[in-house]
Write a structure and sequence with these properties.
The protein is mostly beta strands. It is built from no helices and twelve strands. The chain has a five-stranded parallel beta sheet with strand order 1-3-6-9-11, with no helix packed on it.
């Protein structure tokens, strides 16, 4: 899934039932809460800020040279995997 603006996912909760790769065409800041059932892969070269809570049994993986900022008290249980770039945590 390639996103092009901060409201590309709307304003409500996003439920990801299957494995999803998230990329963007510009640096983005998303406010949505996200529920992940399998894997959420953050890829690419543009920075991404996730302000909403990430929850569910799935995992979060980070690939690419971008910065990923997580600003909520997340409670997903599948673990966090890091390949490249930087992960910044706030309120976790």
């Amino acid at each position: 899934m390639i996103l092009g603006n901060d409201t590309a996912l709307g304003s409500g909760e996003v439920k990801l039932e299957k494995k999803v790769s998230l990329n963007s065409t510009i640096p983005l800041k998303l406010a949505n809460t996200v529920w992940i059932n399998e894997d959420l892969n953050v890829v690419g070269d543009h920075d991404l800020t996730l302000d909403g809570v990430i929850s569910g049994p799935g995992s979060l993986s980070k690939f690419g040279m971008n910065h990923l900022m997580l600003n909520a008290a997340n409670n997903y249980s599948g673990g966090t995997f890091f390949d490249d770039g930087i992960i910044l945590l706030s309120n976790d």
